[in-house]
Automatic annotation (TrEMBL):
PANTHER family (alphabetical): OPSIN
Native source organism of the sequence: Mystacornis crossleyi
Name listed for the protein in its UniProt record: OPN5 protein
Location relative to the cell: Membrane
Name of encoding gene: Opn5_1
UniProt keywords, alphabetically: G-protein coupled receptor, Membrane, Receptor, Transducer, Transmembrane, Transmembrane helix
Domain of life from the UniProt record: Eukaryota
GO function term, MF aspect, one: G protein-coupled receptor activity
Length: 210
């Protein structure tokens, strides 16, 4: 309920002030869409199955649940990665260059994110990797057990782990560390000028916030 209400509020606010939205804010809207999609398509089945102590439905509902989880999960991860990269580029660019990130550019990026997520989500349906029940039997996901049991499962899980988790996560960390370093250097220069009292404390706080 909180997930649906919270993300619905984000979407309602975005619609209300759509003409005032800046280009990077479209990624926040996309993240809300992915989160609310996950909540509506997956949570009811997961909660009901948990109360039942076993998965409700057969193989079809299991594949559906895993597909939705993978689609929206990868979409969320890649959206967070795109947000980090754009924030890094804006932080390290002049005002004129940062304005070059237009709404059309971000819309194309969002379309690519969804296509990328959809591709990885349907690959198990096409024979590379597979979906199946989780160990506790109350939800479904990628068949992790095939990591050791087959070369097909091993190659899929390894590729997915690197391209959908490790690479985006490292990119996010690198971008935010870059932003923090940029803020650190900027306020170090201000401290040297000595125009702001308690500049050192201010620098530490702003670096932490970044």
């Amino acid at each position: 309920i909180l997930t649906v209400l919270g993300n619905s509020a984000v979407l309602a606010t975005a619609v209300k002030r759509s003409s005032l939205l800046k280009s990077p804010e479209l990624l926040t809207v996309n993240l809300a869409v992915a989160d609310i999609g996950m909540a509506l398509s997956m949570y009811p089945l997961a909660i009901a199955s948990a109360w039942n102590h076993a998965w409700l439905g057969g193989d079809a509902s299991c594949v559906y649940y895993a597909l939705m989880g993978f689609l929206f999960g990868v979409c969320s991860m890649m959206t967070l990665c795109a947000m980090a990269v754009i924030r890094f580029l804006v932080t390290n660019s002049s005002k004129s260059n940062s304005n070059k990130i237009t709404k059309n550019t971000v819309c194309i990026l969002i379309a690519f994110i969804w296509l990328y997520s959809l591709l990885w989500a349907i690959l198990p349906l096409l024979g590379w990797g597979s979906y199946g029940p989780e160990p506790f039997g109350i939800s479904c996901t990628i068949a992790w057990s095939k990591f050791h049991n087959s070369s097909n499962g091993f190659s899929f899980i390894l590729s997915m782990f690197l391209l959908c988790t490790v690479l985006p996560a490292l990119t996010i960390v690198a971008c935010y560390l870059g932003i923090a370093w940029k803020v650190h250097k900027a306020y170090q220069e201000i401290q040297n000028i000595d125009r702001i009292p308690n500049a050192a404390k201010l620098e530490k706080k702003l670096t932490l916030v970044s």
